[in-house]
Amino acid sequence: MGFTLGLAQTAFPADGNTLDQVRRCAKAAHKRGAALLAFPENLMYPHDLSATELKDLAEPLDGPFVDVVRRIAQQHGLWIAFTMSETNAAGGQPFNTAIVVSDVGTIAGTYRKCHLYDAHNVRESDRMSAGSKLCAPIRTPFCTLGLGICYDLRFPEVARHLALAGCNVLLYPAAWHDGANKALHWKTLLRARAIENECFVAGICHGAERYVGISYAFDPLGNELAGGRDELLFCDIEPSEVATAREAMPIFDHRKPSVYTLS
């Protein structure tokens, strides 16, 4: 069953009211007929908060931020994928967590970012805790979702794990820092993950100036379905194309895991 995917390439609003931004995008996505709307990394708070501020403002999964997004999803009959700063029950820095809520407002799946970006004078490990396991497949009426967050994209094992687990659509909410070759890497890696796993892959980038600010979606053959700087992008996804691609190029039948080890 085909469906329409919406990519909300938002930046943190000047008035700080992120939830109004989510409401506005959800209303537009519903009007466009989207079944799933995905938001970028760093949706809940701006990136430049201190580690102490991030920890103080973090919320649990049953907190008010998630609760409002759940009600927005239910109001518009729309599945929503978004990120938040999740309280660490062990008392450490919060988790960078992606959540998928259903069109009736239930939490369908969550994922805590595993790979933290400690590069180019950025140290995410000073500001957040790393997750300890990859995303479990998230079943929807129209596809099976897998999630990675930003820097996870640079680790092909993540996408391959999700594809082997049965995911046919992979979402990467991101705040992909701009810089030399960064836009090239962002687009190339998204396309590569789609081609090498023969599934749909979408990257949703934060829209603030410090980031690349371009979102993309690719089909299982690497064709670009959506791409640009618009706050809202839409594309049509036909999950049956995954099986078609894998029948034509049966890489999953030809894998040899027994030789993929270091001796």
Give structural notes.
The protein is α/β, with parallel strands linked by helices. The protein has one domain (about 5-260): Nitrilase/N-carbamoyl-D-aminoacid amidohydrolase (4-Layer Sandwich), CATH 3.60.110. Helices cover about 30% and strands about 25% of the residues. The chain is built from seven helices and 14 strands. The chain has helices at about 20-30, 50-55, 65-75, 155-165, 180-195, 240-250, 250-255; strands at about 5-10, 35-40, 80-85, 95-100, 105-110, 120, 120-125, 140, 145, 170-175, 200-205, 215-220, 225-230, 230-235. Strands 5-4-3-2-1-14 form a six-stranded mixed beta sheet. A six-stranded mixed beta sheet has the order 8-9-10-11-12-13, covered by helices on one side. Strand 12 (about 215-220) and strand 13 form a beta hairpin. The chain starts with a strand and ends in a 9-residue tail after the last helix.
Fill in the keyword field for this structure.
single chain; about 260 residues; Nitrilase/N-carbamoyl-D-aminoacid amidohydrolase
Offer a quick outline of the entry.
Helix content is 28%, strand content 25%. By secondary structure, it is an alpha/beta fold.
Q: What distance lies between the first and last C-alpha atoms, to the nearest angstrom?
A: 44 Å
Unreliable residue stretches? none
CATH topology name: Nitrilase/N-carbamoyl-D-aminoacid amidohydrolase
- CATH architecture field: 4-Layer Sandwich
Rg over CA atoms, rounded to whole Å, is 17 Å
- Proportion of beta-strand residues: 25-35%
Average pLDDT, rounded to a whole number, is: 96
